[in-house]
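User: Show me an example of a complex going from sequences to structure tokens.

Assistant: Sure. Here are the input components:
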Amino acid sequence: MDALIHQILAGLATGGIYASLALALVMIYQATHLVNFAQGEMAMFATYIAWTLVDAGMPYWAAFFLTVPAAFVLGVAIERIVIRPVENAPVLAVVVVFIALLVILNSVTGWIYTYTIKTFPSPFPKEPLFGNRYMSSHEIGAIGVTLVVLALLYVFFRFTPLGLAMRAAAQNPDSARLVGIRVGWMLALGWGLAAAIGAVAGMMVAPIVYLDPNMMGGVLLYAFAAALVGGIDNPGGAVFGGFLVGVLENVLGAFVIGNELKLAVALVLIVVVLVVKPSGFFGRVHVTRV
Amino acid sequence: MSRRQIVVLAVLLAVACALPFLASNYRTFQLTLVIIYSIALLGLNMLTGYNGQISLGHGAFYAIGAYCTAILMDRFGVPYWATLPAAGAVCLLVGFLFGLPALRLEGLYLALATFALGVSLPQLLKYKHLEGWTGGVQGIVINKPEAPFGLPLNSDQWLYFFTLAVALVMFALAWNLLRGRIGRAMVAIRDQHIAAEAMGVHTAMVKSLTFGVSAMYTGVAGALGAIAVQFVAPDSFNIFLSIVFLVGIVIGGLASISGALYGALFIQFVPNVADEISKAAPWAIFGIFLIGFVYLMPMGIAGAVRLAAARLARKARNV
Amino acid sequence: MALLEVKDLRASYGETRVLHGIDFGLEPGSITALLGANGAGKTTTLRALCRMVRTEGSIRFDGTPIGRRATEDIVRLGIAHVPDGRGTFVNLTTEENLRLGAYVRKDRAEVEGDLERVYGYFPRLRERRAQQAGTLSGGEQQMLAVSRALMLRPRLMLLDEPSFGLAPLVVRELFEILRAVNQAERVSMLVVEQNAAMALDLADTAYLIETGRIVLSGTAREIRGDDAVRRSYLGY
């Protein structure tokens, strides 16, 4: 029983990370109907930036709060420079560009930092909080950070004019232009936010899986599964999906199929959701008129 | 085929046959790999280029073909050449079965599902309950075939000709298939899915069959690859293998048979050159070329060659 | 000076030319109707004014040429477009839709006042302020679309088939409010309508467009009296 509780709680911690990345994916999907295959690598790259700062002697939180805006700028730049030319191109072209982005980010990171695994610090104490035996402080901290990020995003989108404008631009770009919203820049902002969220996710996951250029591959897969389970166009669903996938991964991995096949859980989830209920739990069902 | 095309092909074939006697063993080995990759790329191109179904996980079929061969040769002592039809048959079936749920998935979602397959493949191959068959993390080592009937060829040269022969057969079959009714149906489905359906094309059957045939081609390539490299192990079949195939067909040219060859040359030789700069460089170059080709040369090398040939032909006529 | 001056406006969808060089003008404070059958080019004219299609020719708003500007910038000059199909943000609430109408304005306090005024014109919207806009009826969505345009405090409103799909009673109510807004707030309007009779009741001047060319222009009374118009468009 103890073990089960531990797995569930650990699952919630990683689930929060998956939820963040899934949220980033959904944000970009809502605005563009595109799945950002490079989301994981963008997060990984940002985490390396943070590592560089910490390695140079900067205190953790200073590096953290410098990396997040840096990631934001990176996201905006990628959207304006790489994605904009293929906005209306056929699906294959877009997918190829995303894959190219993935590959370039991965290899540039490997080039600059080599492929040796590095440790990434956690800002949370090593001893478990209150001496509890279920969760490490980092796991609790990661959940906390995730919840703060989600809360900030919620407030931003629901209560600020800019958030409202971004929602409008994503839902109905033509009407958005008619009220004066610069849709192109809203898109870029969306990418920036997604990149920033990804950076936070990367910095939370790196202490657990250790920093190396390929660290986000599995995480991205779980995030895809989470976004699909929750409904690819539903941010709340993405969050729900993230936590669900995290718990499922840990519980199934520990008790049912063994830790080596955990990625297969994501694969099966993805295929099953896509084939059985593509709109996930909370997404909108799309009907194509013939 | 036009007379000019036949002449070009004959010349190419003559050159191809001469090469192993002019080049070193290592070069011959590399050229064998080029031929193998071109079969794999032809498979993927059928699915993605001609039929419009995006697969980011074709490395899985390459792996299945490779493991089929390795297991049959190592555990059951099957001769290398007999493993090819077996690998092909298995992949045809698996591909077809894959194609069935894939019917429900459009463009981006299919890409997503196949991407998931590609990422999780090494883990699946390392699964400890299958270790008895797959050799787990260590993989399986197999022997290199010798030239039969006492032919005066060393094993690298023999393998080259063997692969070349298989490739010729497979390319001929593909060329025939793609030119005919099924090929046209495939393209119709890619371009105007609903209209094709309305015109009586059995889209479901064609799409699943295409998946199967495409998997078969890549699987046979995988089998040949295992024989050539003499080794299969899970970590060789990660997501980057699938991405390499994607690079190959984009750069070589989508919906083009000659594109498979151009692409294979690219993915075999570019890393060799780029490796000099840094271990990470080949992928950075792949990525930049991918983006460059999408923006500037979406028809790939094959397309550019076709354009150039057309321009030359026009000039010749005007003279 | 005319508020809007259009000379030799040509517009195309891709390679297909739809407007073949039309000229018209609009006086400040007036309501102008643009009449014509389906496919004549009325909607295209409005979209051309907002630069949502490829255009050539001269468009001057209050003397400033706007023929090269982006849609988002034209909005900032005070032109509000109520598109055909209403362009409602269906997943946002009624009030969010309205606030978006005022997106480009900087005077926050005035915006609150305008919100109240708009609810005054259309009390039904106030009842539904927190509801998802997609759940509103057709008539209510049209009121919402017009209100959203009003939230800009526009100098010129472009309305594309505001009567479409609405019961005659609702249309009359809507047009009365348009007339009231026009007179109380000096908002000029260009109304595109298939329903010629109601449009001519509302408007001061009218233009008739056929296959991308203006074939008739004059005051509403003149147009209403024209025999050809009566027979083709007014049905008697």
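The lines above are the inputs; the final block is the predicted structure for all three components together. Chain A touches chain C at residues 161, 164-165, 167-168, 171-172, 174-183 (CB under 8 Å).
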